[in-house]
Design brief:
Pfam families: LacI, Peripla_BP_3. Keywords: DNA-binding, Repressor, Transcription, Transcription regulation. By secondary structure, the protein is an alpha/beta fold. The chain contains twelve helices and twelve strands. α5 packs across α12. The longest helix has 17 residues. It is elongated, with a radius of gyration of 26 Å. The two termini are 47 Å apart. 43% of the residues are buried.
Amino acid sequence: MATIKQVAQAAGVSFTTVSHVLNNTRPVSDEARRAVLAAAEQLHYVPSALARSLRSRSTGTIGLIIPNNTNPYFSEVARGIEDSCYAAGYSVILCNSDDDPVKQRDYLNVLLTKRCDGLILSALADSDGELLRKMKVPAVLLDRAPSDLSIDAVAVDNRAGGVLAARHLLGLGRRRLACIAGPREVSISNDRIAGVRSAMADAGVALADALCRHSDFTSAGGYAAALDLLALPPDQRPDALFCCNDLMAFGALRAAAERGIAVPGELAVVGFDDIDLASFVHPALSSVAQNTRELGRITAACLLARIADPALPRQQRSIAPELHVRGSSAAVTLSSSAPTSSPATELMGMTS
């Protein structure tokens, strides 16, 4: 890669003349300007981003840490973030933490070392929050935001989403609701289950502890948890299942198919996130929608506003979810002995 000194030698001018031409910092004769630009083109000179960042105190980069970009929810949100940041002239550096606090801290340190103009983080430990405040880096917490950290945050109203799912299932006449939740320590999952419990309590129905399972946010995890629930005796087996994300719901649909349990005839299933694939399983998955692209756009806009004005008051954005009802929880006559829908089949290539 050519250097600015090599451009100066080829153009027959001084190093400072090349700098003034390329950065437009001082008038230069037309002849010298033409010589510099011709030499730069001939040598394929690319200005140093590091040098420019030192002068402007801006790198034009945004750091994004998410748990796993193979989860379609996070990949769709990341795309919304990237589109918005690119339109504003920023590049996005994507890091996967795998929900590992140590790995996330390592990536956070890397992004701080690279002097990113701002950071978007899907989860944050209290100690990392202290580090961000100390470094004075604009940051936004996405999806999982501890309320005691004075950092901008954008998230869907997870409790409200759980309420929507439970009210829908109860409205179908289902009473033995079961839940497949995420890891116990993940707040968004706990909030969704709290919403289910609240809606059921309002309807005079309790969520039985025996009908709750915890898993990771994967199809394999949902599959294993659903097999366990569906192995209960018929009079104890759930007639409705709420999964805390769509991937776990996909696994549950496969489990139901393997056990010959008709969906939605014998078991209504609702997921959370409403990723694009939710419409392409059979039966199509009912899901609490977060509008992932819009969530990414709002998160990026929040960070860009913070970068432009660090003195802004703290921004807290809570986005209302919507329930999209499809075939997996369609209304059926529960007393009918005949299946109203073919059992779920495997999602394309996404088997456990």
